[in-house]
Amino acid sequence: MESFSIVDKNDRHLSVVFGKQELHRSNNYHRSVHIFVEMFGGKFILQKKAMNTENGGKWSSAASGHVRYGETYGAAAMRELEEEIGLKADAGDLQRITKISPSHSNGNEFITLYTYLMDPENESLKLQSDEVDGVAIRSLVDVIEDVCGYKDEYSPAFVELFYTFLNLSESSTTVDVMKDVCKYKNEYSPAFVELFYTSLELAKGGTTNE
Questions:
Q1: Inter-residue contact 38 to 44 (CB < 8 Å)
Q2: CATH topology for 3-139?
Q3: Any residues with CB less than 8 A from the CB of 179 and at least 6 apart, and which?
């Protein structure tokens, strides 16, 4: 059975629990990792969680999971990448982006976010069927738009990490406007919001009705 660390408000180890059910039963602070997988060409991989998992049926990071007792955040990230979607990464392949503190919405977890750049010409995904229901490969603009319009279809931890990731990244003017419209939609006129999203659809090759 898997063992996990219960930690204090400063992420210092306090005790060990066995099994995920016991880990969540007490509502104590614990550790997890999320990995955003990007692809050459500006694509972004999303995972749909299997129904029998935490946040089952929701979209989330390409890979994520709890840090085991005695395991570092980085080691957990490499393990989850391989276990869930079949990508073998070395420590140097992962870029640590940020660490967020526990909250009720993220399940009382200290979460460290990593990114991994996948080369689709030399790597392929192999999904763990009992934890992963499927994956989607989307452009960053599409993900921003979807999270903005359908936030409840994503895990709360992913949404928090995704906005943090966007705020830390160097992005284009279009992405910057999308972030702002998504977060502060009520501060924009309805006509502007409609026209802005219409322009995005046209840029992606969509059509509008005359």
A1: yes
A2: Nucleoside Triphosphate Pyrophosphohydrolase (3.90.79)
A3: 144, 163, 166, 167, 171
**Highest mean pLDDT, choosing among 47-56, 83-92, 181-190:** 83-92
**Pair of tokens at residue 177:** 């406007």
Give the residue extent of every domain in the chain.
Answer: 3-139
Answer with the residue of higher pLDDT: 136 or 151.
Answer: 136
SS3 50: coil
- In angstroms, how far is CA 21 from the centroid of its own chain? 22
- In our burial notation (b when 16+ CB lie closer than 10 A, e otherwise), range 108-147 reads bbbbbbbbbebeeeebebebeeebbbebebbebbbbbbbb
Instruction: Quote the pLDDT of residue 15.
Output: 94
Q: What mean pLDDT is reported for the chain? A: 87
pLDDT at 206 exceeding the cut of 60:
no
Tell whether the model's pLDDT for residue 146 goes beyond 90: no
Distance CA 153, CA 151 (A): 5
Please check the confidence at residue 171 and state whether its pLDDT lies above 90: no
C-alpha to C-alpha distance for 7 and 13, rounded to whole angstroms: 4
* Half-sphere exposure of residue 54: CA atoms within 13 angstroms, side-chain side: 19
